[in-house]
């Protein structure tokens, strides 16, 4: 049962110290991630949704090894992340901004070959074959090897990012807002491509986005993040049709789907989403929650499963339930 | 019978490249009636921002209006002299840009900046100005406006800054507000509130709004009417609900089909083949023809005219004429 | 709108090209041995046999100048090479790794920069003795801080870019990331600095030689020639003028090229 999980995250925490001008001593602590726990099954597309500052990018980067100072456990394919020697062959990442995710001074062929070179895989001929293979899979031809990133459009660059992530054949890919910087019609192409690759290679994705519609379309299950915590986790249909946490309700209400005719009851809130500055007790959504009770001020809430079905979980972090 | 507040006819805007001048907007025409909220939707490079900037006389140095007329409230804005334009800017037409970070001067307090617009156009005393500023800040939904009056931009969040900019835009009670992607840089929940605010302003002050965006969902939520642009041309226009439930132009269909949504889960999204043509390529015939699945020879020879196919629903496409011809026969 | 030519580059190429041409003449067909003295012919004004006249020892000024250019170029190139090599290494490490290593490297940099360059060079040359190689070392050390700073600032900007993060996730080690992934992106900034460095090196070498601390006589050096020419300003003004003009052309040439390069990457 446990070895069909490609990722397990247990009680992940990260505190970021605000650098002040002194080189000695740490600055003010900011809790960027708190008590993050979730799993991703092999071949599953798991969504992570939240607004700016909620910590979803930090979470994605921690899983891929870009953030070292973390507490808690990250287990990939059954092994603890810090003990894995070749992390890059197990999990890869695709970034949001196609204009800065490719090295501007290198040709596309070089960029794609680089992961293989670093791990000393094959000789030059074999590597070029692999590069051509990947180019075809992502929908481009071998002539792209000699071009520079600035000669490509945003969509093409994003394809190259995806291609380079595939070179080491990982079974989990962190997709950090992979389509947010692209035009609508190009978004569709990239989403289609990600779907195709998912089917072809049985890839698992941690799909990070602020756009609930994209998440709904792509993902099986989704976790909603707010101020560094997961506040709700369930199948995507559950979240959309039956949002429980007040923040999820606000999010679903404002996503304005194309076909909505009626006015949702949206919580009108006046201040904006910010990460808490200090390690606080109590619920982080307190200031904006229309349903809060007095225990919400002091109780640090844990995740509860409120699902009626035994098969699927619906986890919520809220004192109401 | 609502009057047309803004009437654009045959507007062409060119950009001066190294060797030549290329059109980013190719002779478009449309009109906005008093009190309407009109949207221009299109992807990057379609010319929607340039159109908006040309109305306000804010085109960048290397761009210019090659031909056409921009009639605002009976006044021709193309070629208007600077003095006359300045009287209109901020007072009768105002603009809200995308980046709340860079639209405000970081060294001047909020109160002074919003008051500046009043100072330029009207003669009020300092106290009168301050009262009006605080009143407007309250109207745009900012809490404790008396305190905020002395704050600097960096002390506010993105959403709050955008509200301040909207305050600057409405304080002179303009007839027209041009909003160029005002919510793109904001979080989804904040975006929602800004859209509600704009709706409220339109309702209370009857201000006409021209809203530019690439986000169809946002256009759908806010705008009464919409114009769809592609590569410098208008391909379709009409009442928002009609356009979204019954798109006629192949590009509009493709655009709507590309958007992921509940119903499409499990299915492939529409892929519009090919890519947007560069502005340096001379276009003969319909701009979209090379990417369209439903073409005839005529599409490649002559640019289709915009024709009315329903109540306020216009399309530039030969296939609709073909369909309606077929329907008219017999 | 017509295509605008990069006048800086053009003028720079012309000037520098002229100087290099002179240097080549020296390599292939110098009219006279620059050290050959001929007292009978001293202080001749420019004439057909001696294009730029002769100096106080009867040596052909033209031959001395073009030989001096060779020395100057050698010193300039070596100095800039030394400065760039160590500057890039230290600046790259400081910018990429940060922390206390960055602090130490930058404070050492500041210490070197705190001294007026010429004074520091004089001190080093006094300790090490006169000569071509000693000058290269002295000037080289003085040039390291500016290259180091430029490299560091470029690295600081680039290290947070996503392609660098990608490289980390691909498993590249820090050394590879610094010098294979990041460094090539700093070439435009470095190129501009290198060309300015050339012209500064030429000036510095000339200044040192002028003060008498440069290359050992009788090896020709434009700076020392200028110093000698000072004494004969009224008998043989062409001596000082021609030498001075050559120095000016060289320095200007490199400066224009550097401006031209800057303009290319500005767009």
Describe, in plain words, how this protein is organized in 3D.
- The complex is a heterotrimer of chains A (321), B (330) and C (267).
- Helix content of chain A is 28%, strand content 23%.
- Chain A is built from 9 helices and 12 strands.
- In chain A, strands 6-7-8-3-9-10-12-11 form an 8-stranded mixed beta sheet, with helices on both faces. Chain A has a 4-stranded antiparallel beta sheet with strand order 2-1-4-5, with helices on one face.
- In chain A, helix 5 (184-201) links the parallel strand 7 and strand 8.
- The longest helix of chain A is centred in the middle third of the chain and has 18 residues, at 184-201.
- Residues 258-279 of chain A have low confidence and may be disordered.
- Chain B has helices at residues 48-56, 82-88, 100-103, 110-121, 126-139, 145-148, 158-170, 188-205, 216-222, 240-245, 250-258, 297-301, 318-328; strands at 4-16, 21-33, 37-41, 63-72, 75-76, 93-96, 176-180, 208-213, 225-230, 233-239, 307-310, 313-315.
- In chain B, the strands form 2 sheets. In chain B, strands 6-7-8-3-9-10-12-11 form an 8-stranded mixed beta sheet, with helices on both faces. In chain B, strands 2-1-4-5 form a 4-stranded antiparallel beta sheet, with helices on one face.
- In chain B, helix 4 runs parallel beside helix 7, helix 5 (126-139) crosses helix 7 (158-170) and helix 7 (158-170) runs parallel beside helix 8 (188-205).
- The longest helix of chain B is centred in the middle third of the chain and has 18 residues, at 188-205.
- By secondary structure, chain B is an alpha/beta fold.
- Chain B has 2 domains: 4-92 and 172-261 and 269-328, P-loop containing nucleotide triphosphate hydrolases (Rossmann fold, 3-Layer(aba) Sandwich), CATH 3.40.50.300; 102-171, no CATH class.
- Chain C has a single domain, classed as MetI-like (MetI-like fold, Orthogonal Bundle), CATH 1.10.3720.
- Chain C contains 10 helices and no strands.
- Chain C has helices at 7-29, 61-97, 99-114, 117-128, 132-158, 162-169, 174-182, 187-211, 222-231, 237-266.
- In chain C, helix 5 runs antiparallel to helix 8, helix 8 (187-211) packs parallel to helix 9 (222-231) and helix 9 packs antiparallel against helix 10 (237-266).
- The longest helix of chain C has 37 residues, at 61-97.
- The two termini of chain C are 16 Å apart.
- In chain C, 44% of the residues are buried.
- The model of chain C has no long low-confidence stretch (mean pLDDT 84).
- The A-B interface holds A 51-52, 153, 155, 183-185, 187-189, 191-192, 195, 210-214, 216-218, 240, 250-251, 253-259, 266, 268-274 and B 43-44, 141, 143, 157-160, 187-193, 196, 214-218, 220-221, 244, 254-265, 268-272, 275.
